[in-house]
Amino acid sequence: MVIYNPKDWWKLIFAFHKSDTFRMMLPGIIGVAIFTGFVVYLENDVFHATFKNTTAIHTLVGFVLSMLLVFRTNTAYERWWEGRKAWGSFVNNSRNLALKLSVLNTSDTEKAVISDLISNYIYAVKEHLRGRIVANELTHNRAYPSEYYQNILHLPNRIMKGIYQEINKLHIGGKINDSQLLYFNEELKSFTDNLGICERIKRTPIPYSYSLYLKKIIFIYVFSMPIGFAREFGYWSMPIVALIFYVFGSIELLAEEIEDPFGSDANDLPTDQIYETIKANLDEIFLINKNIRSMYKLFILAISLVLVSSCKKEVNEVDKVLLTDIVSLSAYEEGIKSGVSLMFFHATWCSICKEQTPAVEATAKDAALSAVKFGQIDTDNQKAITDKYDVPGQPIIIMYKDGVEKHRLGSGQSQQKLTELLKALL
Question: 74, 163, 289, 365: which has the fewest Cβ within 10 Å?
Answer without folding.
Answer: 74
